[in-house]
Amino acid sequence: MAISPDLICTIVTTLQSLITVTLIARTRRNSFLRWICVPSITYMAYIEGVLIKMTDHHTYAKVTLSGMPFTVLIQHINLLLIAKVDLAGQPGTNAGKLASAFALLQSTRGIGTPWQVKNIPSHPLVLRAKPPSRGQFIRRQLAIAIWEVLALILVLTSLATHNVQDDDGSYIYGSGREFQLADSSMKQLLGRITVTFLFGFPGSLLFLDAMYRMASLISVAARMTTIASWPPEFGSLADTYTVRGFWGKFWHQNLRWSYTGVSTAITCRILGLPKPSLIERYLNLTIVFILSGLMHVFTNVASGIEGGNTGAMLFFIAQAGAIMFEDAVQHFWAILSRGEKNTAAETPVWQRCVGFMWVFCWLA
User: Fold this and answer.
1) Which residue ranges does UniProt annotate as crossing the membrane (predicted)?
2) Alpha carbon distance 76, 183 (integer Å)
3) pLDDT band at 166 (very low <50, low <70, confident <90, very high)
4) pTM of the complete model beyond 0.85
């Protein structure tokens, strides 16, 4: 009887996590043993990607899950070699240290740790005004997760019936059309909007948020963590009037700690760029989006998309350019208006409206 690829993948992932958790809990921050184990951890991530490709899951589930090996690998490297988390010299039992190391590995945003990323959304006002009991929190998370799954099913059903052929019979999303606007047909332009704002971002948001809420209710129900350890996964749409606000405040920050750790190591430790400096800031930004692009290409390859869809890499690298453009426009606007750069709370309504239109057109 053939062994399920899912089972093998789970075993490999567990072994990979055990190696990293043990190294964090039992070795010092500069231990050479950490470097020796990195090739093994990297190879396991490769095996996980191959196994995910072998599964018979729905394509959407594959696309969403197959980015995990790359993302988790970067987090392992970040904890072991960049942040150099060292629990070996701290007081406590070995079991306690292993538990703390495992919690760190799972906390991609570093909630409640010295490495907590910025722009973490606050709990909704209703939860802050009257903190819920454990049972109330679990019921709330379960109810929201259920309706998100139902909404996701509706999105996937619509995607399955979506017509991808243009009027001339060509493929609407063909390779090389990513930046063609002037000679695009109306069906192509509408197709971009449909895929981006009906299937792409909403589908990903619903899936990721539902998974996050299910993980939170299981963890809180098992008394492994507290409610405070589970702030919202996504921020407010009110912050999406700039591309920087979309990616840095609204969208999930699960990649921020690990990817920024790698980019900072490259710019400051390897290249020796002064921090803060303009070149360091924007090179960091570019490297983070390159890593995100690589993750999505890896995702596409593991999902069975031939060639990995290089358009994904172009899309994410372009986000860094868009943010640089925004910063330049805001800088020169501040000079022309002879005032300080406005904070989000002070940004005039008309500027926000222009910003929302800009982000809408850019992402589409």
Assistant:
1) 7-26, 32-52, 142-161, 189-208, 282-305, 311-329
2) 45
3) low
4) yes
